[in-house]
Amino acid sequence: MQHIPTMDIRGLGDIRFETQLQRALQPSGEYDAAKWLFVPNTYTEYRYILGTRGVNPLICIGINPSTARPDALDPTLKSVERIALRNGFDSFLMFNVYAQRATSPDDMEWTLHEELHRQNMAAFDYILSLSDSPTVWAAWGTIIEKRDYLWDCLQDMIAIGRAHSARWVKCGRASAAGHPHHPLYLKADSPMEDFTVEEYILHRPAAKKKRGRA
Q1: Closest CA to 5 of 110, 139, 114, 94
Q2: Confidence of residue 205 (pLDDT cuts 50, 70, 90)
Q3: Partner of 92 for a Cys bridge, out of 25, 27, 53, 84, CB 3.0 to 4.6 A?
């Protein structure tokens, strides 16, 4: 199944992370809310968090969410879970640089939705707070080049990570341009190593023509 955005997120009403988190913390008739953290807790045009609950989660960072949901992980999320468990973590949390759901990143909106980004950063701050020593796995591949505003989003994430003393890691060989490897084709026993995300973004590939923020 593919997900192509069908409506403007601005028409979905209350997208505040705090509101959606409180709903996700309640029991659900569709999945085990004691096992899963799924924010929002229904399938919709955006997603802040999807993962399992634990005391030592691996926070994996992609670009944007696709079709995965609790008990129905896609191949990428299955790989993330395997790698997390093989590297000593008891759970995983999938997060994305941008929260708009689209199977193909080419379908993401061209202009940043400021409120969606703001709420997504609130979600990132929250998941980092779940651990005394959070580990953040950079795993977005070359897809970050799809939209210029993604670099700005990542810059905000780096600042939030710094406030939480987060450790950034990568898994697998980086691309020729220095992008961290996407999880899909990694072996389950792929080792992790430190990733200097500040240096990475400082030397990012030349941005394409700016399309602005709105």
Answers
A1: 110
A2: low
A3: 84
